[in-house]
Amino acid sequence: MSSHPSPIWTPLHARLQETLRKRALLPRGARLLLAVSGGQDSLCLGRLLLDLQPKWRWEIAIGHCDHRWSHDVGLADHVRQLAESWRLPFFLENAPPGPETEARAREWRYGALTAMAVAGGFDRIVTGHTLSDRAETFLYHLARGAGAEGLSSLTWQRPLGGDRLLVRPLLNVSRAETGEFCRARDLPIRSDRANENLRYARNRVRRELVPYLRNHLNRQIERHLARTAEILEGEDEYLDTIASGLFEESIDRGDRSLDRSRLRSVPLALQRRVIRKFLQDYLPSSPDFDDIEAVTNLIDAPNLGQTSTLRGRLVARATGGRIELLDLRQK
Ligand SMILES: Nc1ncnc2c1ncn2[C@@H]1O[C@H](COP(=O)(O)OP(=O)(O)OP(=O)(O)O)[C@@H](O)[C@H]1O
């Protein structure tokens, strides 16, 4: 057998191959549902995966989510034809009628892709998110005051329930590169009109903020932000493992209390993470910085009985060696 690369081999093929090996993202023989929007990123990813398929022996199918937005007419057929020309099975889900908001569309889309994966027995859903998406997500969350987890939230993979994973193999490839690849291979891209709408904050980050930063601050801004997200992802994973262990050692779920004497000697970064885990189960939405600080302050509180009220709903109280949570609505 020849070890020479095929004629279509490009530096992007080499990079993806290296990523897949190093990160063990898509195991040999896995069943992959490739989420194709019709845009350049997912088409580039699809072509690359098809080219690498003989080596990895994946079973690949294409999944498309039709939002049924006015500007999307014909898009689902376009993706279906692409699947046919690539000789891949095609799965389609249609959105129920409703308001065209970005957040709603995203939530529905992930549910629809998961349903397709369950029905078709796929263990990996693969998306075309790029280094550029990672940089934009970083900026978007930075502006909202996120910590390491939010800043690095576009990760290489994340669990979807059961043994299924969402995998993003192009996080070290920029949008400029996927565009160049599609042009060179003459792939039939359909631009996503929703991405042009500047009503959406994410689109303003993509179309206004990043270009501004590139022109006025640093030509490599996307790459640098994505690298920072990568570093934070590793650190976040590490800290989270330690914090989870500490949390399990300190929590008493029966009486909703935490062993504060156990937490006194650990670094502030871990205290905050443990408190966040503690509050997560009891607040109606994710605990924010103020919630976490209020309860973290109780770890060292000298006064027994000192309390912090959270959103008028919960009271955290320092007792001898513990912090307990009381639900105000039950009082
Ligand atoms: N309508 C769709 N059908 C199938 N897959 C899609 C669709 N829209 C997006 N995707 C998948 O998601 C990837 C990211 O798309 P896009 O950046 O438009 O989404 P996003 O809303 O920014 O995603 P996220 O919120 O997860 O960052 C695409 O490369 C593609 O794999």
From TrEMBL:
Catalytic activity reported: cytidine(34) in tRNA(Ile2) + L-lysine + ATP = lysidine(34) in tRNA(Ile2) + AMP + diphosphate + H(+)
Major localization listed first in the record, in broad terms: cytoplasm
Gene Ontology biological process terms in this record: tRNA modification
Pfam families reported for this sequence: ATP_bind_3, TilS
Keywords for the protein's UniProt record, in alphabetical order: ATP-binding, Cytoplasm, Ligase, Nucleotide-binding, tRNA processing
Molecular function via GO: ATP binding; tRNA(Ile)-lysidine synthase activity
Residues annotated for ATP binding in this entry: 37-42
Keyword Ligase assigned: yes
Keyword Iron-sulfur: no
GO cellular component, one term: cytoplasm
The family this protein is said to belong to: Belongs to the tRNA(Ile)-lysidine synthase family.
Domain remarks: The N-terminal region contains the highly conserved SGGXDS motif, predicted to be a P-loop motif involved in ATP binding.
PANTHER family, alphabetized: TRNA(ILE)-LYSIDINE SYNTHASE-RELATED
Reported function: Ligates lysine onto the cytidine present at position 34 of the AUA codon-specific tRNA(Ile) that contains the anticodon CAU, in an ATP-dependent manner. Cytidine is converted to lysidine, thus changing the amino acid specificity of the tRNA from methionine to isoleucine.
Protein name per the record: tRNA(Ile)-lysidine synthase
Taxonomic lineage of the native organism: Bacteria, Bacillati, Cyanobacteriota, Cyanophyceae, Oscillatoriophycideae
